[in-house]
Task: structure prediction
Amino acid sequence: MNYTDLFRATLSETALEIAALLVLVVDLGFLRKAALKTRTAVAALVGVAGCGAALWALQMQGSTGLNYGDSVLLAAGGYIAAAQAGILILTALTLLLLIDSVFTRNAGEYVAVVLMAAAGGLLIAAAQDLLVIFVGLELLSLGLYILTAFAKSSGKSAEAAMKYYLFGGMSAAFLLFGFSYLYGITGSTNLHEILLAVYGWNAYRAAPLLYVAIVLVLTGLGFKVAAVPFHLWAPDTYEGAPAPAAAFIASVSKVASFALLISISTAASHVFDGRPFTAALTAVQVPAVTAHSPVYLGFATPWMLILTVFSVASMVLGNFAALAQTSVRRLLAYSAIAHAGYILLGLAFFTHSPLSTNAILYYILTYGLTTIGAFGVVSVVERATGSDKLDSFLGLHKRNPLLAGILLVLFLSLAGIPPLVGFWAKFNLFAAVLGAQSGPTPFALVALAIAMSAVSLYYYLQVLKRAYVMPAVDETPIKAHPVTLIVLLAIAAAVVVFGCFPALLQGWIASFYI
Amino acid sequence: MLAWTIYLSFAGALVEALLPKGKNALARWFALAVAVLGLLHAFGGFVHGMGQGRVVIVDLAWVPSMGIHYLLAADGISRVLVLLTGLAAVAGVLFSWNIEVRTNEFFAFYLALIGGVYGVFLSFDVFLLFVFYEIAIVPKYFLIAIWGSTRREYGAMKLALYSFVGSAMVLIGLLAAYTTSGSHSTSMIDLAHAGLPVSFQMWCFPLVFTGFAILAGMWPFHTWAPTGHVAAPTAASMLLAGVVMKLGAYGCLRVGIWLFPHGLDPWGFSLLGLGSWRDVFALLAVIGIVYGALVALAQTDFKFVIGYSSVSHMGFVLLGLMTLNQIGVTGAVLQMFSHGIIAGLLFAIVGRIVYERTHTRQLAELETMHLGRRLPFAAWAFVIAGMASMGLPGFSGFVAELQVLVGAWMVRPWWTIAAGIGIVIGVAYTWRALQKAFFSDVLPTAHVLEQEHEPSHRLAAITWPEITGVIMLTGVSLFVGLYPRILLDTIEPAVKALLAGGGQ
Result:
């Protein structure tokens, strides 16, 4: 490894960092006297341009990864490139939502932090090494804490950031502790080497420590994806954070974290299928299991078990808790927990073939897109009515028919009604789970997931009922900034088009494999 | 030609949504035009398809990686039900001529629902069918919740959740069938030939069948139907009873029975006298017939009478399906058509012609209004519709229920006897409602007679859309009753092919 390789493998991250610095220079250097609106717009546009440049860099980079000796630090191409492209596109969309916002006077700093956090997201999507994973996660997380607190005049924002930070710091500690165990028992920080080493063990050799490490690591990662029981931060953060920041947390951060989970699952399933490691595997002596030796479960079984527990808990608790919410942001937070539960099911029943990976990516990308739109609508309504309570959506179809139509499309998609994209996301994912492993267990879990999504229709309809059915208290029209409206309209259109032609997005993801 | 029914309806819905607000007349006429065009296409497809077997209309790879096809096709069963949808759609627009609030939105949801229904009847790919099936759920919710009456939000939410739970069960079953068959193709023609293991069919069939049967109003999952029907605006209850409940029954037949034929095989043991899923569902159907009729007999709300009568009549459809013989299943399909027309007519009379003028549906209050004298048109229309509903010879209901009963007799005579009791009770509740609502024998006092002539108490005159709608629906029921071969010739070969397993 030399610095040229490093530079070539992190071209897109570099592009984002340069854009972040550029935003600061433009905003603080040239536009100090300009009106806040101009500054916000310019900062957001520079940020979007940065995302575009990073996307271009991603294209240039192709499948150039980064190796240190024999071990991979950063992988590239395939699902990783698709996830990274998704992260960049979703980041650009959240930045466009900023143009209409007034929560901060420091637009330049906000955009810079967003871009740096997105760079962290790109890193963890590609990372194959514990240290790189940790650095990327911290880069992302620190950005998110700052973004949550960005509405400085709002007490809620500060409270949300504090909660998020305390939980986040704790979970990072768990994660690091788990990583240190993994390194201690295997002598490597590379995912593939760790899994390969673990594969050759028997129950006498450091196995209890392995299980402790898996639990610790999953605690840390479960926090990132807001899986039950590490979900407590999500409702408060979604409620308190400024809308564009909440949209960023709900979409980009989720995409990156799930891409990381895909990396680990892929590495684990590769070891077991032995595809790229056939040669290495023959060299490892697998000890014979005698009748008296305790059963050795390896890595995959406990990993899968814990993910399944997370998944079931998240689906059930997320959906049922969402039923009781009166704040739409909190409702979206619990629905995010529920959606994370579905995706974790896909990760628990994982095959090395692109089937599972593609289904999970499809789900998380479309979910990210839809949820950005949902937060966009919420932020417009919130600005007009001063609250995100369910009742502030009363009569939305009269106050702004277009916005109500967008809300209808997005929420029905989240509920998984065809022909919207949310249906195909669930469909692909559940078909992948059933395809990965046959038997009553995955089937029962898929049945539970489908039953839970029937529950979810109720709370999504609660919002739509207020927008369309119940009489308006206040009939003054709600105005939205044209840029916001165009972005939201584009998102809703994408949700419909991708839903009517599901092969489009699948083809897009598959195109990265070439 | 038939595929255009779907596209026209969805395009019409989109245009309605974009129409300027306040142009109610334009919205109405446009919706009528779209519905009539749809009916013409449906009728054209029906005439054109006479004597033909299954015809594939479109077959495109929709999601190639998963083997999902955009496969529209039509056989005799589809063509008859598409024709029913066309008729119900036109009648529904005629009977919602008086919608003044958010008119264009009403027709937008209405046409979207119609488009979804056409789509279900024409889909020959399980997931395409499922997509259209779900598309029909959401507009139903909004139609009832926004434009409905009694406890509309409750009725709408209940209906939406029941439908969604039913479709969740269907989705689970379909996903399982798709993965079990090897995940190659989701075309029903392929799946029917996939040779799914018998043990798999044994548990997947009841799941899918129950999922669809919830929407067909199968006892004990029927409770959404009366509350939904009563809460819905007239056109929506006409569609609910007329075509949406048929979606469920059609799914039971097309997906349940066609794809999982061995699900109906005997279990090999018998529990409480029930030896197969066929016995179980037939029992539930018979209970539905008798229970629906008995409950209808006890109602005080006119619309609830019709709502429960729908549960009872849909029981005949399910019973016919469970006979699994040519005559019984043909009867079931004909009963879907017949009940679609008759229930639509009954709901139109109760919900539009009577309720919009009297503003009450309580039989006790209607009894004092002498509607037989004041609304003779409504009274006579209800007499005809009631006769059709009772299953008098000469109307479509007679032919259909007779076939179902004959088919049931060939399998288990006691099914026929129990269902026959249901018919007798059916006569009783129709008679009771007719007498209470229109022909009460309480003589009007002079004071009442005087009051009736005051302008404020005068009932609005019957309008032309109402007359057209009533004539159209009674005409169809009478014509099919007198000349059932017009539909039977189309239905019979399709049923024969379906029961034979693979189709042509």
User: Anything to note?
Assistant: Chain B touches chain A through 35 residues (CB under 8 Å).
